[in-house]
Specification:
This protein is an alpha/beta fold and 361 residues long. It folds into two domains: 173 residues, 3-Layer(aba) Sandwich (Rossmann fold), CATH 3.40.50.2300; 123 residues, Rossmann fold. A seven-stranded mixed beta sheet has the order 7-6-8-9-10-13-14, sandwiched between helices. It is elongated and about 70 Å long.
């Protein structure tokens, strides 16, 4: 009887020790969240904070938040605060100024960063020179125009297409990238021009497009202009389908988009995310939009990478590179520069109510 009692006591002691070690291990895992929690961008920063917080709770992590204020000074201050807290990894950052000021500090502290909102191409393009341990869970600045070029060149290979732009840097870069890609594919637009934006009608432009025989038109411009082009094309029975970039996500003004209008954009994450995660947001009265789901996914990536680094003994930055991570918004993989290995932009078609994925794209 005394032996049994002693054995049970030993088992209880061992169990308590294991529980303490487990709790200690969890306590040692601290994820930093840097976001603009004050100032004009605070509403977006709160999305990051909410998404990361819910994911941390679901995955047994503790997070330490820091306000980067979307400024260089704020980014540096947030980095120093998180480094002092000895976080294992930082997620967040929506502003170029903040993350560029933070990265040298976090690099010195050997803390990798997963940004969910900064698109500046040089952030990762300069990685070989800066050594910044940054990973981008979102599009690059050039992903949109590269997707437009690649996808429309393939989609309109057998069509008479035209390319127009509104003369802005954005519109012209989009149009020129598409034109160059088409030329490389031995395709030539039947019409190329710059249009005057923000007019009440585009009858003159549509008339010239119709005369040129164009049945498909990419317009580098804002949604209102593309909506007006679609309306005027219908009035002239031109039989033209228009396409634009992700700015078509914004609802147009008084003129709706024409049925069949194409948009090249990333998906709405709430429409493709794990339904259970979306429901978890709803249960907390948190709208699963904006940066909430990417921030949630960043925490999931952090968890998997930390586990991978621990089991393999490799540095955390290496564990984040070249591996598939299953997240609430799909599989994530970073390339050698820290960018997503696949361009997230897709083709969507307006069905009269909203944009739906174009089959096969």
């Amino acid at each position: 009887m005394r032996l049994l009692t002693t054995t049970l006591a030993a088992l209880a002691t061992a169990t308590a020790a294991l529980s303490w070690l487990s709790a200690s291990a969890c306590a040692e895992t601290l994820i930093g969240v840097a976001a603009p929690l004050s100032g004009p961008s605070a509403v977006l920063g709160k999305q990051v904070e909410a998404g990361a917080g819910l994911a941390a709770e679901a995955n047994g992590f503790t997070i330490k938040t820091a306000d980067d204020a979307c400024t260089a000074d704020g980014g540096a201050a947030a980095a120093r605060e998180l480094a002092a807290a000895k976080v294992n990894l930082v997620v967040g950052f929506l502003c170029t100024e903040a993350i560029e000021a933070a990265l040298p500090i976090l690099k010195d502290a050997n803390i990798p960063v997963i940004t969910v909102g900064v698109r500046t191409e040089s952030l990762t393009d300069r990685r070989a020179n800066t050594g910044w341990p940054v990973f981008r869970l979102g599009p690059r600045g050039d992903d949109e125009r590269n997707a437009v070029a690649a996808k429309l060149t393939q989609l309109w290979r057998d069509d008479l297409f035209a390319i127009v732009d509104d003369g802005t840097i954005y519109g012209r870069e989009m149009a020129e990238t598409f034109r160059a890609a088409a030329e490389q594919a031995a395709l030539k637009p039947v019409f190329v021009d710059t249009f005057r934006p923000q007019l009440d009608n585009q009858i003159g432009l549509v008339g010239r497009l119709k005369k040129a025989g164009a049945t498909k038109v990419f317009a580098g411009g804002d949604g209102d202009d593309i909506a007006i082009m679609g309306r005027d094309a219908a009035q002239l029975n031109a039989g033209i389908t228009f396409a634009g970039g992700e700015n078509l996500r914004a609802p147009p003004g008084d003129v709706p988009y024409a049925v069949g209008t194409l948009m090249i954009a990333p998906p709405e994450w709430s429409e493709v995310a794990d339904p259970k995660v979306v429901q978890a947001f709803g249960a907390r009265n948190i709208a699963p939009d904006g940066y909430t789901l990417p921030a949630y996914a960043a925490i999931e990536v952090a968890k998997a990478a930390l586990a991978g680094a621990e089991s393999s003994g490799e540095p955390l930055g290496q564990a984040l590179t070249g591996h598939d991570f299953t997240t609430a918004i799909g599989t994530v993989r970073f390339d050698g520069k820290g960018d997503l290995s696949q361009n997230p932009f897709r083709v969507f078609r307006f069905d009269g109510t909203h944009f739906v994925p174009l089959e096969g794209n």
